[in-house]
C-alpha cells in the first residue's frame, strides 16, 4: 500500500509540464485578455497621485506617537503631522510664529516642546482653536521658554486647553 501511494505521488509530479521561460512583459498579455489594464495593476503608472495622508515630516523622526523635530533649523511648524501624535518636540529651531491651525488636527497632543525658538507672539487660538471642547483639554504642558515672547502680552485664554497652568513654561529669554 505504501509503495502504491509513493508511485501515485511520483506519477503526478512527472505529469507536470516543464517550466517555460516567457518574455519579460508577456504576463501583461494575460492581464489584457482578462480585462485588467496595466494602470489598474500598477497604479504608479497613472498620472493621478493619491494622497497618502499624514506621514512623518521630512527630516523629523516619528516613533510611537512621538514626533521629534528638534534641532533642524525649522522656521515653521511642520504640516501633515500624524493625527495620533501625543508628543511634539520642536525645540531648538527657528520657528518665529505659531499659526492658527498648526495643532488643529492633533486631538491627542499632550507635552509640546517649543522652547528655544524665535516665537515673539502667541495668539489666543494657537493652542486651542475656537469651538474646541475645553472640557476635553488636550495639553498637559507647553514649553515656550527661551523665546522672545513677552508673557505679559499673552491672553489668559490662550492656554485654556492646558490641564495644569503650572505646566506652561515661559520666560528665560537669552
TrEMBL record:
InterPro entries from the UniProt entry: Leu-rich_rpt, LRR_dom_sf, LRRNT, SLRP
Coiled-coil boundaries: none
Transmembrane feature ranges: none
Gene Ontology CC: extracellular space
Localization in the cell: Secreted, Extracellular space, Extracellular matrix
Residues annotated as signal peptide: 1-16
Residues covered by the LRRNT domain: 55-87
Keywords: Extracellular matrix, Glycoprotein, Leucine-rich repeat, Proteoglycan, Repeat, Secreted, Signal
Alphabetical list of PANTHER family matching this protein: AGAP008170-PA (PTHR45712), DECORIN (PTHR45712:SF14)
Subunit structure: Binds to type I and type II collagen, fibronectin and TGF-beta. Forms a ternary complex with MFAP2 and ELN. Interacts with DPT.
Protein name from the UniProt record: Decorin
Source species: Rhinolophus ferrumequinum (Greater horseshoe bat)
Gene expressing this chain: DCN
